[in-house]
From TrEMBL:
Phylogenetic lineage: Eukaryota, Metazoa, Chordata, Craniata, Vertebrata
Superkingdom of origin: Eukaryota
Protein name per UniProt: Glutathione S-transferase omega
Gene3D superfamilies, alphabetized: 1.20.1050.10, Glutaredoxin (3.40.30.10)
Gene Ontology annotations of biological process type: glutathione metabolic process
Homology family: Belongs to the GST superfamily. Omega family.
Naturally occurring in which organism (per UniProt): Eleutherodactylus coqui (Puerto Rican coqui)
Amino acid sequence: MSGSQRSLAKGSPAPGPVPDGLIRLYSMRFCPYAQRPRLVLAAKGIKHEVVNINLKNKPEWFFEKNPLGLVPCLEISDGKIIYESAIVCDYLDEAFPGKKLIPTDPYEKAQQKLLLEHFSTVISALYKILFAKKDNQDTSELKLQFFEKFKAIEEALTKKNTSYFGGELVSMMDYMIWPWFERFPLFDVLEFLEKTPRINAWYKLMLQDPAVKETYTEPDVLLAFYKLYSQNSVDAADYGLD
């Protein structure tokens, strides 16, 4: 991987053409959606550079890359652009050699997509907890609602009876949901891992995965970032950099 960790903000010049032999990922160091393709890039060993975007103070030219102004966004050497995290990850797996993360069996592929659809409701429940915490509201009921949705993930892994969601090796589903598990301390739901033994075992295995280790951010750093981000600080994206 190449590229500077510091984020580009309003007024920053646009980067030049993507260097030969690389692809470019527009990202943000603490964004869970942007971590998805970073996990896939690391897992597949794809040569790339990362350009971080300040999401609180976006450079004007970035909207030419992605009209939504969101990360992740992938730029290929011939100027082609892909965005939306799931679509970016699918492209990376299909377009580049190395181990395949998406199941080849159509039924297994469909099952992962169905489970990922359900996980989007888990993500929504997590952010409801986070926003309530920010407003100093009681989160007890929201945590119960989260756990009701979360239990389906435990049931899916129990039914499959494998170490990972795709079998005995890490697959796309594992990487697609991992970023939110990394942020469980931020959402204050780490206790629920003890109530889901299969997921807890999976969680411990994922912590040892090379791609997870490469993209991992310590909980105290995430907490400090979010404190700044929730205060609308334009410096949040570069928290921890000299």
